Amino acid sequence: HTKENGGNRLGIYTEALSSKRVERFNMETGLRYAVERQELVLHFQPQVSLSTGKVYGAETLLRWHTPDGKIIQPDEFIPLAEETGLIIPIGQWVLEQACMECKRWINAGMPALVISVNLSALQFQQEHFPDIVRKVLKDTGIQPHNLCLEITEYTAVQNLEHSIRMLGELVDIGVKIAIDDFGIGQSSLLWLKKLPVHTVKIDPSFILNMIEDSDGDAIAKAVIEMSHSLGLSVTAEGVETEGQLMRLQQLQCDRIQGFYTGRPMSSDHFIAYFQEISNWVG
Ligand code: C2E
Ligand code: MG
Ligand code: MG
Ligand code: MG
């Protein structure tokens, strides 16, 4: 009797497991063709300078529009893209497209803004990655200082020696470097001093409750002060309220990015957004 039950449970278990496997397999197959089938879509989230109130630039965020009409968020497919190596062609496509859009905005009469692009650890590990960046800049005709590459704190500290060399080469090209998701990783601040980076992005988890949560506030304050003392600028991510904006302004945070100043939006919406904001600020 117990054996039978156990057997059943095992049956249910393996069934659930294999349906997970099937799901994963289907997603992997779909992702393999997503670039050529033009199912990947870039959104752009404004970054606003707190001292001027002007739009500083935008972060490029990837979405996957599947053939059955679903929109899949990056948290759901980037990990799989990384495990399978598909992030290499996908990431390259994102970099090219982002720079092309930036050029399109300039052609539409906007001033040259800073376009940020997320890099996966795998891309960052490619020894010839700086060549890829040079080629994309040349092909799209945007200036190096209009491109910011974001790597996570976690990626940056994985292999410090490699990071120092790779970031040095990228900075020599003239692009900007931001450390993403700052604060949730190892959080030893000493290594920041060793790396040639321009900007630190405070993770939304510290900003979302910073008004109610004194720890969040203390961490934001410490990161801003430390970054400034190292000559780095700070972008706070996940700003959703005016209260957070005002507190960050008080703490002399350089820039904010969050739903309060704008959700991730299509490239055309971003052009319209920019024009609207500019009319406001004057
Ligand atoms: P990230 O680079 O830290 O991007 C910021 C994430 O915070 C975005 O999520 C954005 O929509 C979200 N966010 C922005 N403002 C707010 C806010 O006010 N409140 C809240 N709750 N969330 C906010 P998203 O677009 O889902 O992207 C998630 C992550 O996926 C990104 O985190 C990044 O690590 C990764 N990702 C996105 N696009 C790419 C890409 O092209 N390449 C790579 N390698 N990773 C990407
Ligand atoms: Mg999301
Ligand atoms: Mg990012
Ligand atoms: Mg982030």
TrEMBL record:
Annotated coiled-coil segments of the chain: none
Domain EAL: 24-278
Superkingdom field: Bacteria
Name of the featured protein: EAL domain-containing protein
Organism whose genome encodes this protein: Cohnella silvisoli
Organism taxonomic ancestry: Bacteria, Bacillati, Bacillota, Bacilli, Bacillales
